[in-house]
């Protein structure tokens, strides 16, 4: 197994026992998976049923689910680079709506700029940290 991981340039990672947030990306994804509207409350009756459910979930998550952290585009749109056109179109629609009815808008419209980087646990700036 280790040789195959090396061939694929994958580094092994071992979670620490009883540390629920050791792999924050997996934990975050598992929460999305488990708390989604289609999670079977009674569990799965077979391994095949579980596999089929996960396949359907992955299809939904990647191609239908509009993710809030990437400005409500799907992960597939983001991966293909289609998010730029989608977000430009949305910004245009909002600008036209604000121009057509300025009284409806009390401030700026939603920010539809392209997200360049997404992090789960971003580093805090050094100047914002205080000594304990």
Automatic annotation (TrEMBL):
Organism domain of life: Bacteria
InterPro entries cross-referenced by the UniProt entry: Integrase_cat-core, RNaseH-like_sf, RNaseH_sf, Transposase_IS3/IS150/IS904
Gene Ontology biological-process entries: DNA integration
Bilayer-spanning residue ranges: none
Start and end residues of each Integrase catalytic domain: 9-75
Residues annotated as signal peptide: none
GO molecular function, one term: nucleic acid binding
Protein name stated in the entry: Integrase catalytic domain-containing protein
Organism for this UniProt entry: Leucothrix pacifica
Higher taxonomy: Bacteria, Pseudomonadati, Pseudomonadota, Gammaproteobacteria, Thiotrichales
């Amino acid at each position: 197994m280790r040789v195959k991981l090396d061939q694929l340039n994958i580094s092994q990672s071992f979670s620490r026992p009883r540390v629920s947030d050791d792999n924050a990306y997996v934990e975050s994804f598992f929460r999305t998976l488990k708390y989604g509207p289609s999670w079977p409350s009674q569990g799965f009756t077979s391994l095949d049923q579980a596999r089929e459910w996960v396949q359907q979930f992955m299809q939904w998550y990647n191609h239908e689910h509009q993710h809030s952290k990437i400005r409500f585009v799907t992960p597939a749109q983001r991966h293909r680079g289609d998010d730029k056109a989608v977000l430009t179109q949305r910004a245009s629609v909002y600008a036209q709506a604000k121009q057509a009815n300025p009284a409806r808008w009390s401030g700026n419209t939603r920010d539809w700029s392209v997200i360049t980087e997404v992090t789960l646990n971003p580093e805090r700036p050094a100047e914002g940290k205080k000594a304990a």
